[in-house]
Design goal:
Layout lengths: L1 H8 L2 E5 L9 E5 L6 H12 L3 E5 L13 E3 L5 H16 L4 E3 L17 H9 L4 E10 L7 E6 L9 H22 L5 E5 L4 H4 L12
Parallel strand pairs: 1-7, 2-5, 2-6, 3-4, 3-5
Antiparallel strand pairs: 1-8, 6-7
Length: 214
């Protein structure tokens, strides 16, 4: 369902994968500017072969997300959120899973980044050696019938104090770098998903075998 939705929604998904294998366990921390953010991260992380957990605020509405690492993280249940955080920490400490964390908590319009929550700092403290990986997700709507999506994975954030603040700065810088690449160096992106071609690409009459060229 997730892969089908991505192929249907986008013309292409392109990415800059990690430049080196990511030390596990890891926390992948993207911005949250689009409805498809979780779907795109699922496609990217499964492509990389990194099993992960993901906190889902709407889990009760669609519990099938539990089949792909989704965990209940309800806005109106502090005890439920705390239980999910504890469970995630144990899984990372055991080396069984990584974590996809939307540290801004809320989906919102770009380009701003909301403050990153304390949960990121807590998990980084409780799981010694965990790698914190910033990720930028950018959507472009210009040259095609459907939008294009661009993902960039950055280098790990160094361990130490103020992990949420420093990770937010890293995501901000990565978003800016991704925007420049899209405009000036699009060839540096690899194709992650071939989506749905434009109507003129699908129905170009010039490509019909035997048709005379005008």
């Amino acid at each position: 369902m997730i892969r089908r939705s991505v192929r249907k929604a986008f013309h292409t998904v392109r990415w800059i994968p990690p430049s080196a294998p990511v030390s596990q366990p890891a926390i992948f921390v993207p911005n949250h500017h689009g409805w498809h953010d979780g779907y795109l991260m699922y496609v990217a992380l499964t492509k990389l072969g990194y099993p992960f957990l993901d906190w889902v605020t709407e889990f009760d509405a669609f519990p099938l997300f539990g089949k792909v690492g989704g965990m209940r993280f309800p806005r109106d249940d502090a005890a439920g959120r705390a239980a999910t955080i504890r469970q995630s920490i144990r899984a990372l400490q055991a080396g069984k899973k990584n974590l996809l964390l939307f540290a801004e908590s809320e989906l919102h319009y770009p380009p701003e980044l909301l403050p990153f929550g304390d949960a990121l700092g807590l998990i980084a403290k409780k799981v010694p050696g965990v790698a914190v990986i910033p990720v930028a997700i950018r959507y472009e709507m210009a040259f095609h019938e459907r939008p294009e999506a661009f993902l960039s994975f950055g280098p790990p954030v160094e361990a130490g104090p103020r992990v949420p603040e420093r990770t937010r700065l890293a995501v901000r810088a990565l978003l800016d770098e991704t925007a420049l690449r899209v405009r000036h160096r699009p060839e540096t992106f690899l194709t992650l998903v071939e989506g749905t071609k434009d109507v003129n690409e699908r129905w170009d009459m010039r490509n019909i075998p035997g048709r005379r060229k005008p």
